[in-house]
Design goal:
Layout (H helix, E strand, L loop, with lengths): L1 H18 L7 H24 L9 E6 L4 E6 L5 H21 L4 H28 L1
Antiparallel strand pairs: 1-2
Helix pairs in contact: 2-3, 2-4, 3-4
Length: 134
């Protein structure tokens, strides 16, 4: 029980330190973080609304390639969530790196956050393409 309370207290301390970072006091950085998270949430909501479980497991297109002139991989319906999860992963990693690099190079953290927004936008476009097909 002592370990759990110590872990909870340690986690609260990390969050308190995180909120005191200069990154979160900058309006532009915070707005880019909120935009990236909002786009990722929109992406997951669209996927959750459009994708439904199917009884047949191997007939949903999950990969498109221009080299093969169409869909080259079929799989279960839930594999299309990989697109949204990838965008969330990129946003988390880029946000963490942006917070770390903000004090050293503000422009680097901006580029990282812009990269998160661009990945989120492209993942929405790709998700829309796959949900229209299904």
């Amino acid at each position: 029980m002592k370990r759990i309370s110590a872990l909870a207290q340690n986690t609260r301390g990390h969050f308190k330190n995180l909120r005191q970072q200069r990154f979160f006091s900058d309006r532009l950085s915070l707005s880019m973080l909120i935009a990236a998270l909002g786009l990722n949430i929109v992406n997951l909501v669209v996927l959750a609304i459009k994708l439904r479980p199917l009884e047949f497991t191997s007939s949903v297109p999950v990969h498109y390639s221009n080299l093969n002139n169409g869909f080259d991989q079929l799989g279960p319906w839930y594999l299309n969530y990989r697109i949204g999860l990838f965008a969330i992963g990129v946003t988390i990693v880029n946000s963490y790196l942006a917070v770390l690099s903000y004090s050293k190079s503000r422009i680097t953290s901006f580029y990282l956050m812009v990269g998160s927004i661009v990945v989120a936008i492209f993942s929405i476009i790709i998700s829309f393409a796959f949900t229209v097909i299904l």
